[in-house]
């Protein structure tokens, strides 16, 4: 653990850099998180610690923890998850072209400094802070760390709007993206899944009904298990499905079985599992993360032991949406990419990240690129929104 002291005109602050996440105080971190706008379960210290303890996000896998904490006496003023990255896998904000440009010019892009939740493209708070001054101190500490270690760059991914504004004011470059989220109606929430279907345009509704009919005709039914109802054998089957999904894409899964074992022990109330069965045999599983307090659900992982037409849509969208409506949830976030989700009632939502590059010439080139990309992304989102799947209000 490294220690640095920073003085301001009003108080003394201590900045700590943590490579071992067990050094961080669980209660203080989670209390600070709870006070943030757009707090998510993925920023809970239990989640981040499990990624490290399970061997999923470690120096050996290219995620060397450099978590920052800022203290005023015994009070935790600010904190963030930061990593030295030796690659750009598992981030979902793509900078491979930047790394390639560095390499072609004889420069090292890696390691870089990354503020993010590994393998988790869920927007929300990243720079946990008691106030704006503490957030600015955290940004300054990130740049100090990057400069001290002669890093090429620093990046903050999927942060909230307040954090993006603070970073932009500090000279960081802004980058926008898009995801697809379903939102329940505020004034008159959907009564049931059929009520939701009735709100869609006819061709979208018919398409969903056809897809569901194919799954039923294949003899598939679903079981729903939440929290501690999920048994170890269920987790084992889910993980087998999860591995099969990666194998189908000729890659290795990011998360180990131990990670999900720790989740079942430490955060059981944040998980919902759908198990698909045919003739009594489990054939697929879809894992959903939950924020019961905020009434938000997050589509995370899925897999199947055999190909069944339209089963992916049923397991990953229709079953979760049916559950969310029945439980009065406000939002279902469908994850990164995938404009095909619009046909299932998930609408485009802008996401943002912030970037700092040490080399002035590369920084200028990336800034110009981001300007063009931002205009294109704005036009893309506008185009998407013009193809509403819902009936006119």
Keywords, please?
393 residues, 16 strands, eleven-stranded mixed sheet, disordered N terminus, single chain, five-stranded antiparallel sheet, Aminopeptidase, 2 domains, 11 helices, globular, alpha+beta
Produce the secondary structure layout.
Elements: E1 2-7, E2 12-18, H1 26-34, H2 45-53, E3 63-65, E4 67-72, E5 75-80, E6 82-85, H3 96-104, E7 112-115, E8 128-129, H4 132-148, E9 153-156, H5 161-169, E10 173-183, H6 193-198, H7 202-217, E11 220-226, H8 232-248, H9 257-266, E12 271-278, E13 281-291, E14 296-304, H10 311-326, E15 331-336, E16 347-357, H11 360-385
Parallel strand pairs: 7-9, 14-15
Antiparallel strand pairs: 1-2, 2-4, 3-6, 4-5, 5-8, 6-7, 9-16, 10-15, 10-16, 11-12, 12-13, 13-14
Helix pairs in contact: 2-9, 7-10
Mean pLDDT: 95
- Give, in spatial order, the strands making up the sheet with the most strands: 3-6-7-9-16-10-15-14-13-12-11
Radius of gyration of CA atoms, rounded to a whole number: 22 Å
Shape: globular
Q: Can you give the helix content as a percent range?
A: 25-40%
Helix/strand structural class? alpha+beta
Put simply, the count of helices is 11
Largest sheet: 11 strands, mixed
What is the CATH superfamily label of the largest domain?
Gcn5-related N-acetyltransferase (GNAT)
Sequence stretches where pLDDT stays below 50 over 5 or more residues? 1-10
The CATH architecture name of the largest domain reads 3-Layer(aba) Sandwich
Strand elements, count: 16
Strand content: 25-35%
- CATH domain class of the largest domain: Alpha Beta
Total domain units: 2
Order of helices and strands: EEHHEEEEHEEHEHEHHEHHEEEHEEH
């Amino acid at each position: 653990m490294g220690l640095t002291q920073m003085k301001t005109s009003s108080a003394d602050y201590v900045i700590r850099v943590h490579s071992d996440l067990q050094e961080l105080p669980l209660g203080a971190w989670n209390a600070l998180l709870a006070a943030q706008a757009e707090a998510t379960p993925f920023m809970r210290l239990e989640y981040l610690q499990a990624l490290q303890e399970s061997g999923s996000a470690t120096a050996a896998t290219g995620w060397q923890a450099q978590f920052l904490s800022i203290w005023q006496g015994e009070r935790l003023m600010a904190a963030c998850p930061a990593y030295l990255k030796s690659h750009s896998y598992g981030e979902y904000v793509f900078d491979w072209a930047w790394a390639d440009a560095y390499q072609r010019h004889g420069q090292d892009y890696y390691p870089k400094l990354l503020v993010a939740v590994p393998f988790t493209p869920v927007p929300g708070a990243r720079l946990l802070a008691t106030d704006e001054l503490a957030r600015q101190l955290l940004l300054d500490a990130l740049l100090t760390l990057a400069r001290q270690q002669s890093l090429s760059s620093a990046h903050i991914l999927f942060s909230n709007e307040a954090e993006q504004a603070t970073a932009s004011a500090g000279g960081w470059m802004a980058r926008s993206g898009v995801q697809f989220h379903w939102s329940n109606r505020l004034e008159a929430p959907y009564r049931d899944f059929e009520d939701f279907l009735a709100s869609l345009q006819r061709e979208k509704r018919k398409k969903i009904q056809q897809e569901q009919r194919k799954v039923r005709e294949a003899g598939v039914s679903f079981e729903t298990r939440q929290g501690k109802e999920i048994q170890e054998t269920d987790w084992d089957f889910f993980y087998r499905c999860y591995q099969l999904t990666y194998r189908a894409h000729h890659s290795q899964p990011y998360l180990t079985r131990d990670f999900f074992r720790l989740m079942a022990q430490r955060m059981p109330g944040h998980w919902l599992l759908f198990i698909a069965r045919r003739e009594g045999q489990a054939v697929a599983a879809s894992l959903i993360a939950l924020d019961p307090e905020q009434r938000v659900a997050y589509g995370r992982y899925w897999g199947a032991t055999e190909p069944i037409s339209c089963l992916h849509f049923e397991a990953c969208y229709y079953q979760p949406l049916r559950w969310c409506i029945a439980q009065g949830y406000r939002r279902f976030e469908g994850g990164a990419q995938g404009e095909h989700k619009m046909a299932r009632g998930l609408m485009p939502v802008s996401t943002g990240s912030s970037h700092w590059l040490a080399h002035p010439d590369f920084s200028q080139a990336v800034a110009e690129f981001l300007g063009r990309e931002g205009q294109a992304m704005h036009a893309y989102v506008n185009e998407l929104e013009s193809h509403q799947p819902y009936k006119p209000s």
